[in-house]
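ARCHIVE CARD
CATEGORY: sequence design from structure
SOURCE FIELD: tokenized fold
FIELD CONTENT:
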């Protein structure tokens, strides 16, 4: 009788332990799965959106366009078709492309989980800075500002910036925004190019610093998000530094001046590499400094074309293409989370830039082969 009672008690404890273990396992599984599940719908939508982006054959078709009617026909079957329909000139088409980008950006942010909102709020500062740089450049050249990125600064405020009579007035208006800390230290007189480098430096060293970006990613990340997103933005800074160094060396800027504008928020280019890059005497020695980084082989391969035309855009195009290949790989390999969302936006931004480059080339009557040399991935 005692043995039966003991056996029953043991069975009871065993069942209770098994149930408890199952509940713990279930709780752990739910905890791991729920963050991923929150991204399932938006990422599925984004992959559909990516399927309607322009393919290489469509870009080539666009380059061959003879007039705006041919341009509009080139967009048939793409995500841009309904945006460019019934437009009457190339300028209207450019504005339509900007609207398409704004539409996609707002859609992605609205679909993203609540915990990702802070991340998008921080990284969206990139678009504000790009818009400010474009507006400042327009004050120097006198050219009309074309399309702008969808960004936190309102359209009405951007319109005020566009209507400002000079760069000083643009900076004064920005003192009334959350970018007041950025503009208060800008020198009163500088070129648009110099202002652009200062704005980029502030953006990536302060707003998108490793700490700020890291905290925002950790709050919203799943799986390999943190590693991937730091790579996406880190490589972007690396490429900016390479372009700044090559252009500065080409212009004969002093070493200390180059060092002062390089951005210290990198991926593969550490401080030692940046210092050596700034101290390079010419383009060839600058590329040799990059040995041991992912960019060395890419730039070395592009040297043949550069040696023929002596255009830095040959080298810049090579590293841009490499960067986009890396982003595309992450978009495909990472099934959920922030990675496909950020990757899509990077690819979309590049596509809009590419389309704008092609449209401007058509408008200016640039030879088609030259347009192909400038555009990325064509």
């Amino acid at each position: 009788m005692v043995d039966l009672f003991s056996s029953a008690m043991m069975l009871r404890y065993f069942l209770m332990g098994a149930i408890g273990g199952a509940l713990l396992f279930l709780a752990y599984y739910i905890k791991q799965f729920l963050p991923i599940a929150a991204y399932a719908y938006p990422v599925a939508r984004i992959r559909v959106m990516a399927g309607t982006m322009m393919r290489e054959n469509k870009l080539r078709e666009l380059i061959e366009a003879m007039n705006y009617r041919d341009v509009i026909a080139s967009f048939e079957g793409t995500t841009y078709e309904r945006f460019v329909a019934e437009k009457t000139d190339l300028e209207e088409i450019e504005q339509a492309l900007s609207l398409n980008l704004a539409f996609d950006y707002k859609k992605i942010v609205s679909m993203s989980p609540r915990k990702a909102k802070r991340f998008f709020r921080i990284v969206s500062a990139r678009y504000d800075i790009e818009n400010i740089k474009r507006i400042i450049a327009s004050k120097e050249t006198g050219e009309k500002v074309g399309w702008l990125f969808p960004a936190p600064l309102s359209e009405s405020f951007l319109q005020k910036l566009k209507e400002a009579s000079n760069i000083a007035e643009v900076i004064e208006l920005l003192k009334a925004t959350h970018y007041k800390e950025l503009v208060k230290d800008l020198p009163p007189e500088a070129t648009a190019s110099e202002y652009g480098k200062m704005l980029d430096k502030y953006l990536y060293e302060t707003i998108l610093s490793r700490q700020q970006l890291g905290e925002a990613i950790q709050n919203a990340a799943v799986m390999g998000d943190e590693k991937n997103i730091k790579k996406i933005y880190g490589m972007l800074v690396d490429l900016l530094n390479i372009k700044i160094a090559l252009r500065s060396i080409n212009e004969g800027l002093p070493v200390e001046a180059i060092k002062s504008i390089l951005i210290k928020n990198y991926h593969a280019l550490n401080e030692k590499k940046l210092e050596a890059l700034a101290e390079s005497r010419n383009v060839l020695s600058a590329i040799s400094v990059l040995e041991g980084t992912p960019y060395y082989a890419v730039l070395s391969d592009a040297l043949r074309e550069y040696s023929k035309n002596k255009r830095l855009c040959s080298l810049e195009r090579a590293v841009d293409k490499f960067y986009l290949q890396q982003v595309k790989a992450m978009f495909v390999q990472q099934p959920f989370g922030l990675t496909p969302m950020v990757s899509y936006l990077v690819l979309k931004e590049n596509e809009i830039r590419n389309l704008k480059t092609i449209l401007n080339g058509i408008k200016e009557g640039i030879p088609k082969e030259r347009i192909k040399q400038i555009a990325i991935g064509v």
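CARD ANNOTATION: The first helix runs from residue 2 to 50. Residues 12 and 18 are 10 Å apart (CA to CA).
SHELF: design records, drawer C
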